[in-house]
User: Which sequence fits this backbone?
């Protein structure tokens, strides 16, 4: 079963996404950048959904660290910040895609499926 790592500082959003994806994927969550880094190193997810605006380590910094650690894992940036320069910066640093909040769960299913296909055959 493919593994998802969901990263957001909003507990209710993490709960909704976890409940939505459980059964289809093995799901892990993190509510901070530091926790996300720890889980990424330990779990090596197949896909990461990453919030940009978080206290402490920003999602952009986490994205950069993830890509340095393993650039084969697709990172889907999910954020309420709809400014074009933010999206461009995330994509420039290797984000697989950018999803603005609020999002549609059907679209999130699509993103998870498409992104997880990227890891097929590319991971040991």
Assistant:
């Amino acid at each position: 079963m493919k593994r998802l790592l969901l990263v957001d500082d909003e507990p209710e959003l993490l709960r909704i996404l976890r409940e939505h994806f459980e059964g289809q994927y093995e799901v892990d969550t993190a509510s901070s950048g530091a926790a996300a880094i720890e889980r990424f190193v330990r779990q090596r997810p197949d896909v990461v959904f990453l919030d940009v605006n978080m206290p402490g380590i920003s999602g952009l910094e986490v994205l950069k660290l993830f890509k340095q650690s393993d650039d084969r894992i697709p990172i889907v940036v999910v954020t309420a910040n709809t400014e074009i320069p933010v999206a461009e910066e995330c994509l420039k640093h290797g984000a697989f895609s950018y999803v603005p909040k609020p999002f549609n769960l059907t679209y999130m299913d699509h993103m998870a499926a498409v992104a997880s296909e990227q890891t097929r055959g590319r991971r040991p």
Observations:
- The helical segments are 11-21, 33-43, 59-69, 84-92, 105-119.
